[in-house]
Prior knowledge:
With about 120 residues, this protein is α/β, with parallel strands linked by helices. It has one domain (about 5-125): Response regulator (Rossmann fold), CATH 3.40.50. The protein is built from 5 helices and 5 strands. The chain has a 5-stranded parallel sheet with strand order 2-1-3-4-5, with helices on both faces. The longest helix is centred in the first third of the chain and has 13 residues, at about 15-25.
Amino acid sequence: MTHPQRLLIVDDEPDFGEFARHVAQGLDYEVVVATNSRSFQKSYAEFQPTLIMLDMVMPDMDGNELLLWLLQQGYAAGLIITTGYSPDYAQEAKTLAEFNGLHTVITLTKPVRLADLRAVLTQTA
């Protein structure tokens, strides 16, 4: 029996979260979308994701803070970092994640193309 892939998305843009949810569900992921860091942290414990999609720029807590929090929780699975701002910002977070032991870290710059998102989700499954 295969274990389902569980994707936890945190993004303060509901439209992007729903877009990513739709694509991931089409690839047989279970998906939870959080629109702020507090609901993300709560969902993380309950959902136990196998993959996280992390937006770098949010109003209440930035992606680097959430990434450090995840590492403190012992998270060691896949990570997709998204940003609508400078790709350098996502690259710095990727470096931080890899330095701390995360092996599968991919960055996507918004707007994300459907084909690119599908490819990344297939690759990390």
